[in-house]
Write a structure and sequence with these properties.
The chain has 324 residues and is of the alpha+beta class. It has 10 helices and 12 strands. Bound molecules: glycine.
Amino acid sequence: MNRKVFIERTTIGISSLLVSPSLFAKKKAILQKPYPNATPFAIATWNVQKATTTAGQALDQGMNALDAAVQGVAVEEANLLNSTVGKGGAPDRDGNVSLDACVMDSNGNCGAVLAVENITHVAALAKEVMEKTPHVILAGEGARKFAISQGYQAEDLLTEESKKAWQKWLEEGHYQPEINVENHDTIGMLCVDKEGALSGACTTSGLAYKMKGRVGDSPIIGSGLFVDNSVGAAVATGLGEEVIKTVGSFLIVELMRQGKSPQEACEEAIQRILEKQKTKPDFQVAYLATNKNGVLGAYSIHSGFTYTIYKNNKCQNINVKSIF
Ligand code: GLY
């Protein structure tokens, strides 16, 4: 066999291996149904019972996990009283509300939008990026234009309340973004559907009075959210800069893959952040995770973090253990 024929045959061999339908079929089956006959449930960071119940009831009615998570977080995106998510979220220091979100499904598909203005339902928009574009991330004006092209309505996201709070901050805040243990209430939601598929959505207005263009962990796949249907999933809330430095949600899923329980994995991920601190942190980070069997874990730096779970027609808000 001469060299050319050898290379051609080898190339054909490799490419047929890469696209072998039987290999694909096998892989898909493993990814899609790791634990069939699952009891559907929805979990979310913070006390968001209406949002979690919306997702949980949709799952009970047979909705897939990704759609349920997007529908669940949409409740908080539209909640004008929630100053950390969607419409009514705190603006940047110049008064512009810009939102971040991402989604990830049971097959590892994901989509994200960063620093989007004038669009309320950014988790749904992230799903559109995932499903309707060849990309994973759209940012800023590009994301806004894509939203409009998909029929989303441009809205002023600065409410009277959030404007008043921003104006008060302008008087007292020294034009410095507000970093404290309280102001990060990102909604991260994880859902398991009747097929046993696990998916998630994460949505936020980010750090209150941030610099224009600042993006936190929430839309960064692996930081604010990560899903691996054969292992589990995790979501983060809190100071995004610190979550990004340790790729928190990916870390938790990988620790679970290595055999840690969801609780142990969340605790280790918080420890990784603390190892880098010289003094007691003046910021909050919290994680919420599930493994593929529906065993949950959650942990935070400071007390006060809670999560909500809807399962078997029951919605509960749970206090989470913390270091301080
Ligand atoms: N975790 C939200 C943010 O830092 O933007």
